[in-house]
Amino acid sequence: MILAGGICAALFHRGQAGAATVVDVSLLASGMWAMGAAIGLSQLVSAEFAKDTFENWKLRLKDLRGQWAPVQDTVNIADDPMVRANGYLLGTVSHDGVPFTMVSTPVMFDKEQRAPGRAPAFNEHGDEILARELGLDEEAIIALKIAGVVA
Q1: Any alpha helices (H) in 50-96, and if so which ranges?
Q2: 13: Cβ contacts below 8 Å, ≥ 6 apart
Q3: Domain coordinates of the chain in residue numbers?
Q4: What's phi and psi for 141, nearest 5 deg?
Q5: How far apart are CA 151 and CA 117, in angstroms?
Q6: What pTM value is reported for the model?
């Protein structure tokens, strides 16, 4: 009900939505919206949001009291000012030395965010693991590679 109430508030607010829209909020208070009225409310909300662009809605709603957030994909989330301000995007370097940005975990340990590292390349540590964990020498590892047992 909080989400639906927030959407209705946005639809009512002349400064945000541009014009008042009549919505029967008594349905929200009673929980009846979760039944048959949800379809009508969903259609009303969809029609209202279809009247403008995603970028304009973000601007219109940015000062709205209450919690809200746009649903974003992996392309447009990188440009979200709140994502950047909260440090959820961190830089790292690929195996080939190419710098890139990736999403960090939104979790902190001891009030510190963990910096991401790159994932190992395919079989990057294979020979090292075979030597250290299985005690194989270089000849044995090469023999396993020739036989197609390991990469």
Answers
A1: 54-61, 81-85
A2: 64
A3: 2-61, 76-113, 121-151
A4: -65, -45
A5: 24
A6: 0.41
